[in-house]
Amino acid sequence: MNDKWIKIYTSHQFFKSEMVKQILIDNGIEAVIMNKQDTAYKFGEVEVHIPERDYSNALEIILENDL
Predict the structure, then answer these.
(1) pLDDT digit string (tens) for 28-56?
(2) pLDDT at 1 over 60
(3) How many domains does the chain have?
(4) How far apart are the C-alpha atoms of 66 and 37, rounded to whole Å?
(5) Running DSSP on this structure, what letter comes out for residue 55?
């Protein structure tokens, strides 16, 4: 994992970030979730990160799927 990873998507709802992550994975793009929400009160953000080299393809997939 020598690639630089960047944030491609952010949401306050975990399930939306999980959907984005799964769609990217289904299209052959590595994706991970960084959950920055407080565990007790559920405020904060949930981010999806991808390798920088996949940014263009991932952005196109996200836009095509209206996410």
Answers:
(1) 999 999 998 877 777 889 999 999 999 99
(2) no
(3) 1
(4) 24
(5) H
> CA–CA separation, 40 vs 51, rounded Å?
30
Query: What is the arrangement of strands in the sheet containing 5-11, beginning at the earlier edge strand?
Result: 5-11, 46-51, 32-35
pTM of the entire predicted model = 0.87
Beta-carbon-side half-sphere exposure of residue 9 (alpha carbons within 13 Å)? 27
Q: What is the DSSP letter of 53?
A: G
Query: How many C-beta neighbours within 10 Å does residue 13 have?
Result: 12
**Alpha-carbon dihedral 45, 50, 54, 58, rounded to 10 degrees:** -40
User: Residue 56 sits in a domain of what CATH number?
Assistant: 3.30.70.1530
